[in-house]
Amino acid sequence: MKTFHYIRPASIAEAVAAAAEPGAAYLAGGTNLLDLMKGGITRPSRLVDVSRLPGLDRIERLPDGGVRIGALVRNADLAHDPDFARSYPTIAEALLSGASAQLRNAATVGGNLLQRTRCGYFYDVASACNKRQPGAGCDARDGENRLHAVLGWSEACIATHPSDFCVPLVALDAVVEIEGRAGRREVAVEALHCLPGDTPARESALEPGDLIVALRVPGEARAFSAHQRYLKVRERFLCLCHGIGRSGVAD
Amino acid sequence: MNLSISLTVNSVRRDVELEDPRVTLLDLLRERLHLTGTKKGCDRGQCGACTVLVDGRRINSCLALAISHDGADVLTIEGVAHGDQLHPLQTAFIAHDGFQCGFCTPGQIMSALGLIREGQAGDDPERVREGMSGNLCRCGAYSGITDAVLEVQKSLNEANQRRSA
């Protein structure tokens, strides 16, 4: 692992300023980032530890019946929150269908949204990967790609986003709140992630320094809580899990 | 870079100077505090051999930076028994042949401890297997492991019922 400077900011504003520098990365649960750093796939020169930022670990019911989930809420805590699991069973089931209990205890909601693909060629630094090294080519195209994208792929990249969690979030019109250098803004989860196109290294709508601070799920989704399920239509490889999830929403 | 942290490990306060921020909680336990009961298997969060409880919750210590856990309360396999008196989970693992080579066992027991504290599995074997799925056993002692966890869960349930009766 390449060495890095470790910074633990005391506020969101300090965190955004520290992470806007080139080579910086946010650290929260670290379950995906440390794995990537150990493999030399991600090599940040500065880690901005946001895991203790105050006020980002709450699950709040909103006046419209929706829910606002702080970015530092742990995956396990959200999935097992009784009111949340009753209101949004498809999201709770998606969370529990991925990774392991140990990983879900550490991984945060914000980190889950931004986890990187599990494409084996992305992880193998000896393979060509346009996502890891723009212009290098894509060994997955003619490689072991049974777990790769069916929809939305491009000539440059056929990797999928690995998050089960994101599938029902898109179906239920969830929104993320982002704190950045220009202040706070909101982006629909559906618009947060980019299709690979010609620039697979650009994975999200986030700019340098942008920090996801919360996730909101609208109240309307509660109305059909009895008719939403998450079914994972694929085998699971422990934390190497890939989801072609289908979040069935019917009213 | 000089980084000092303070942890409570098995109820004892430990102050550690880190010369490098890359040290994981696993390496700190094994290399600096010489608590080698916690095992390094895959070192990538897949096998569960490094499972410890941090602030009462089971995590993979190989994917946790020590510096990020300054102030944490850590429980490792060394802190589970009371002197020569084994924890009920340890006794149950022996009684049910919940291991062969024993390498994964500390992680299995810490994970089982976490599972029981989480209260999500109850006495359903399928849910115990799912709840323990973050711990691999290459000897294939899964059947005994499941039986051991179920037995301890059952005796806890009975004790709770007696208490509330």
User: Taking strands numbered 1, 2, ... along the chain, how are they ordered across the largest sheet of chain B?
Assistant: 2-1-5-3-4
Distance between the termini of chain B: 58 Å
CATH architecture of chain A: 2-Layer Sandwich
SS content category of chain A: alpha+beta
Low-confidence spans of chain A: 237-251
Largest sheet of chain A: 5 strands, antiparallel
| CATH topology description of chain A | Uridine Diphospho-n-acetylenolpyruvylglucosamine Reductase, domain 3
- For the secondary structure, the number of strands of chain B is 5
Q: Return Rg of chain B in Å.
A: 16 Å
Describe this structure in words.
The complex is a heterodimer of chains A (251) and B (165). Chain A has a single domain, classed as Uridine Diphospho-n-acetylenolpyruvylglucosamine Reductase, domain 3, CATH 3.30.465.10. Chain A has 10 helices and 10 strands. Chain A has helices at residues 12-19, 33-38, 75-79, 82-87, 89-96, 101-106, 109-113, 120-123, 166-171, 189-192; strands spanning 5-7, 24-27, 46-49, 59-61, 67-70, 175-180, 183-188, 211-217, 228-232, 245-249. In chain A, the strands form 3 sheets. Chain A has a 5-stranded antiparallel β-sheet. Chain A has a 3-stranded parallel β-sheet with strand order 1-3-2, with helices on one face. Chain A has a two-stranded antiparallel ribbon with strand order 9-10. The longest helix of chain A is centred in the N-terminal third of the chain and has 8 residues, at 12-19. With 165 residues, chain B is α+β, with helices and mostly antiparallel strands. Chain B has a 5-stranded mixed β-sheet with strand order 2-1-5-3-4, with helices on one face. In chain B, helix 2 packs across helix 5. The A-B interface holds A 1, 3-6, 8, 27, 30-31, 34-35, 38-39, 47, 49, 51, 76, 80, 99-103, 105-106, 238-240 and B 1, 3, 20-22, 24, 43-46, 48, 51, 57-60, 62-65, 67-68, 111, 114-115, 118, 120, 131, 133-136.
